[in-house]
Amino acid sequence: MAVTTMKSASKPLPRAMLIDMDDTILSAYGRPEIAWNTIAAEFAEELAPLPPPQVATAVLAYARQFWSTAEPIWRMKLGEARRLTVRGGFAALAAEGHRALPDDLADRIADRFTTYREEAIFVFPGAHDAIDAFRARGVKLALVTNGAAEMQRAKVERFELTHRFDHIQIEGEHGFGKPEERAYLHAMEALGVTAKDTWMIGDNLEWEVVTPQRLGIYSIWIDVHGDGLPEGSTVKPDRIIRSLTELVPARS
Fold first, then answer.
1. In the chain, is it the N or the C terminus that has fewer CB atoms within a 10 Å radius of its CB?
2. CB 183 within 8 A of CB 143
C-alpha cells in the first residue's frame, strides 16, 4: 500500500529549475506492467502453453531485480539490458519447471517492447505550457536526463524541448548522470546559480530528491499517477506534485 504525504504550501518561483525528462515531462517508462502484458499478449502463440500474464510477471520481476543493482552503464545500453531481462525472466520460469523458451524469442519480445515504448511516449498535458510559463517569468531552466546520448537527444528534438531550456544535460553526452553530485553541480554552474536558488523536479526519489536535498536544493517529487510514497519510504520530498502545471503561479 502506498503512503501519501501532504503537499507543502506553494513558494515563489526560484531563479532556476533542474527538470527531469522521462516520466516528468514525457510519459515514457511508467507502468511497465501494462507494457509487458501488452507485448506478451502479442506473442501468445509462441509462449503457449504458458499464459502471457505469467510470462509478463516473470519478466517484470527479473527486470526490477536487475535494475535495482544495475551499473549506470546499462542505461547507455537499454536495448541490450532489456534482452537480458527477458532472458532472465524466461530462465526463472524454466527453473520453476515450465518449458524452456528460446533466446531468439526473448530477444524479439525485448526488441518489440523497446519499439512499443518509444512509440507510446507523449508529452504530459500542460507540460509544454508550464515550462513556457516558467521561462516567461525569468526562471533559468536546465533539462537533466539520464540515458544514452542518441536516444535521449532524439526525444528532446521530437518533443520540441530544445528551445525551451537554457541548458540540456544528457548523461550519455556528458559522461555523468544522476545521482552523481556533479550532475547537479554542473547544471547549476551552467545556469550560473547556486543550490539555494534552485529547484529539482522529477519522478525518481533517489535522483530527484535524496541527492539534491543533500546539496541544499529544494526537491520536488512528481507522482504523476498519484500512487504516493512507497510503503516504508524514509524519503521526504520538499513538495509532491502530480503535474508541472501545479508549479505555475496563479494569475493575480
1. C
2. no
What CA–CA distance (Å, rounded) separates 198 from 16?
A: 5
Q: What is the residue-wise DSSP string for 100-117?
A: PPPHHHHHHHHHHHHHHH
Grid coordinates belonging to 1: 500500500
Amino acid at 249: P
C-alpha to C-alpha distance for 99 and 157, rounded to whole angstroms:
44
How confident is the model at residue 2, as a pLDDT? 47
In this structure, the strands spanning 122-123 and 26-27 are antiparallel
pLDDT digits (tens, 9 = 90+) for 131-145: 999 999 999 999 999
From CA 35, how far away is CA 41, in angstroms rounded? 10
Cis geometry, peptide bond prior to residue 179 (ω within 30 degrees of 0): yes
225: phi then psi, degrees, rounded to nearest 5: -95, -5
